[in-house]
Each structure stands twice: as C-alpha cells, then as structure tokens.
Write a structure and sequence with these properties.
This protein has 179 residues and is an alpha+beta fold. Helix content is 30%, strand content 31%. The protein has a domain at 8-129: Aminopeptidase. The protein has an eight-stranded mixed beta sheet, sandwiched between helices. The structure holds coenzyme A. Residues 13, 42, 45-46, 99-102, 107-113, 133, 135, 139, 141-142, 144-145, 179 line the site of coenzyme A (COA).
Length: 179
C-alpha cells in the first residue's frame, strides 16, 4: 500500500533544524518568494536558462501534485522554504525524472543529499525503480549529488546535457544513512 509521506524534522551537521514535508497547494506564495531569492547561477542550473521570476500559474503547477506520478518535498527552516526536491514519472512508468534546488545559503551543507535520499524513498514506495537527472555539464554539485549519496549512476550525454540514470536500491529510505 502507498505510504503517505510524512513530515520529518532533521538537523544538518551544523545543527540547523529543517522540517521536510510534501509540497502543498498553499505553498504557492512561499515558492514564488523562494525563487525570487535564488541567485542567477542557481536558477540557471535548475532551469537551464534565464528564469528570474516564477509566474503564478507555474508556481501553482509546481505545488499541485498528485503524490503518485508527481511529487515534491520541501525543506523548511524557520518557516521559510529553503529547498525543493521533485520527481515526475516518465516513460517507462517505473522511471522518474528528478530535480533539486536549494536556497544558495543552504547549498553545500548536506541538505541536497538528505532530500535526494528522502525523494528516492518516496519514489520507491510509488513503484519507481530508476531515477533520471538531466544536469548542465558544468554543474559539479549536482553531478556529485547522487553518486556521493551512494547511487550507482550511469552517465550519458543527451544534446549537450549530462543525463544521470540510477536504480533505486530496495528500501532506499533505510538502505542509506540519513545524511
Ligand atoms: C544541486 C544541489 C541541490 C546539490 O546540493 P548540495 O548542497 O550541493 O549537495 P549536498 O547537500 O549533498 O552537499 C554536499 C556538500 O556539502 C558538504 N556537507 C556538509 N555537511 C554534509 C553532510 N552532513 N552530509 C553530506 N554532505 C555534507 C559535503 O562535503 C559536500 O561538499 P563538497 O561538494 O565540497 O564535497 C544544490 O547545489 C543546488 O540547489 N544547486 C542549484 C540548483 C541545481 O543545480 N539543481 C540541479 C538541477 S537537477
């Protein structure tokens, strides 16, 4: 049976407390504010182009998920949205494309890895066995995220974009350390 994703409180290695929970329709304003606060480089690496503002319809689309074929986890610090990890089922139906973005001040602190592991666990519970991430070739932090988290990544080049593909180990939520 499909597990309902739950809210979870974690602490980063530096002690910062983070709440991770599924995205909600009510997150639209917080998501737009989060996006406005991202640096040019962070937006470019996430959207593969210039995308300074998130329109309301786009934000609504990101927040309205079915939690089966599309889901997203948000990381909250002091009631501010500081990170998002999302997945969308593609073809074949056991594969999901994933994407991550953290507020600049929360990058390189281990939060990306925490979200990747939680997202993989949630995807696995939904019958996903393989993750795919499309990454700009110079995006070293993202190129390292999944391999460093323990995923066995296969790499290919698709139109100048690096495509990482990896199986989700059974019970990814417990097979890896939380951080
Ligand atoms: C891609 C992205 C999500 C990766 O997140 P990240 O913060 O770099 O990755 P992690 O959370 O795993 O942090 C790893 C770094 O933090 C360090 N770190 C500190 N504490 C840590 C902990 N407890 N656990 C793991 N790493 C920790 C690691 O040593 C590592 O540093 P290094 O790269 O210098 O070796 C983030 O960089 C980001 O939002 N980038 C902009 C958007 C983007 O590129 N999205 C990808 C499109 S798919």
């Amino acid at each position: 049976m499909l597990k309902v994703m739950e809210m979870e409180n974690i602490a980063l290695a530096d002690g910062t407390e983070i709440r991770i929970r599924p995205i909600e329709p009510g997150d639209v304003a917080a998501l737009m504010e989060f996006h406005e606060g991202l640096s040019f480089g962070t937006v470019y690496r996430r959207f593969f182009g210039i995308h300074p503002h998130l329109g309301i319809h786009e934000a609504e689309h990101f927040c309205e998920v079915d939690n089966v074929n599309r889901l997203a986890l948000v990381a909250m610090a002091d009631d501010s949205l500081v990170g998002i990890a999302r997945m969308e089922r593609v073809e074949p139906a056991t594969t999901a494309e994933v994407a991550f973005v953290l507020a600049d001040r929360f990058q390189h602190r281990g939060l990306g890895r925490v979200l990747a592991l939680r997202l993989a666990a949630a995807a696995s519970e939904r019958g996903i066995t393989e993750l795919v991430a499309d990454i700009l070739p110079d995006n070293l932090p993202m190129l390292r995220l999944l391999p460093d988290a323990g995923f066995a990544v296969t790499v290919s080049l698709v139109g100048g974009i690096v495509r990482q593909t990896c199986p989700i180990p059974i019970q990814a939520g417990t097979a890896f350390p939380a951080q």
